[in-house]
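Q: Convert this sequence to structure tokens.
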Amino acid sequence: MPASRLKRELLRVLQNEGYIQSVQADMADGHPVLKVQLRYVDEVPVVTGMQRVSKPGRRVYVGIKDIPRVKNGIGVAILSTSKGLMTDQESRRAGLGGEVLCSVW
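A:
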């Protein structure tokens, strides 16, 4: 996929949570790209679903009390906060709200 700082940070969060095995920065046709290797357990992908929450036409911002729980805590919501991208649990611990980018389970 084409590289950007937001995509790199999003992949870093997913890798820390165990959804992605590895991320590699590379060049293709003179443009930076990111090569992502998904994680599998017994030939079954770890990522079973992903939903985009905020869109360019409709941004979804939440306070600390309204941070969503994905699949009753099994999944993870990724938020863009003033301290960078973080999971729903990390943002609750830090006491920060922000823009909900996506949910992964």
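The CA atoms of residues 79 and 86 lie 6 Å apart.
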